[in-house]
Amino acid sequence: MSQPFTLTVNGRDHSLDIPATTPLLDVLRNHLGLKGSRYGCGLEQCGACMVLIDGNAEYSCSREVGTLAGRCVTTVEGLGSPEALHPLQRAFLEEQAGQCGYCLSGILVSAKALLDRNPNPTRADVIAALDANLCRCGSHPRILRAVLKAAATLRQEVA
Question: Where is the 2Fe-2S ferredoxin-type domain (predicted)?
Answer without folding.
Answer: 3-79
